[in-house]
Amino acid sequence: QSALTQAASVSGSPGQSITISCTGTSSDVGSYDYVSWYQQHPGKAPKLLIYEVNNRPSGVPVRFSGSKSGNTASLTISGLQAEDEADYYCSSSTSSNTDVFGGGTKLTVL
Amino acid sequence: QVQLVESGGGVVQPGRSLRLSCAASGFTLSSHGMHWVRQAPGKGLEWVADIWADGIKIYYADSVEGRFTISRDKSRNTLYLQMNSLRAEDTAVYYCARDISYYAFDCWGQGTLVTVSS
Description:
The structure holds two protein chains of two kinds.
Chain A: E1 9-12, E2 18-23, E3 35-40, E4 47-50, E5 64-69, E6 72-77, E7 86-93, E8 99-101, E9 105-109
Parallel strand pairs in A: 1-9
Antiparallel strand pairs in A: 2-6, 3-4, 3-7, 5-6, 7-8, 7-9
Chain B: E1 3-7, E2 10-12, E3 18-25, E4 34-39, E5 45-51, E6 58-60, E7 68-73, E8 78-83, E9 92-99, E10 105-108, E11 112-116
Parallel strand pairs in B: 2-11
Antiparallel strand pairs in B: 1-3, 3-8, 4-5, 4-9, 5-6, 7-8, 9-10, 9-11
């Protein structure tokens, strides 16, 4: 199972909105609404931001949102804040009853 | 308080074995799907294996199939990962994680580092 494709890096200024894309195939993202997004700060465990494409766990700010179209899922962060600077990973269930992560996107808040 | 604590990592020679443990507290581990995810130094996340709540369905990544075994002990509320025939490319921080939906990991341990080196 090949990793999902994410841009290596993205940047934005405080208050702006950014979108991180995650491209898979018809065997994963395109066929299942089980796409999740995680935030990981250096040296820390990942934190779940979005599950089932667009659901936020309790405690995750509403400025984090998810969507999907075809084989591509997206995470949008509105009103960027300095503490949003981190690595972001998408993941999807697959037709093989496994999970696959994206390569990760490093977000820099300018 | 929901918590996962991994242990068992360390330095091991290629070809040897190691068993990781993940002790759960604040919830019943067997009521959830549970997963192992690893992260090589400076690299991204890689899903390794899972055991469903029914305890019957178990799946592995191709990279570890036949070498790693996931299991759980209900009485100890603990998840395990038996790793055999270890290779240098298995060097990583290993996390256990709780599933709240279908591959949605809402609780992660702090991770345990496994280094495979001669």
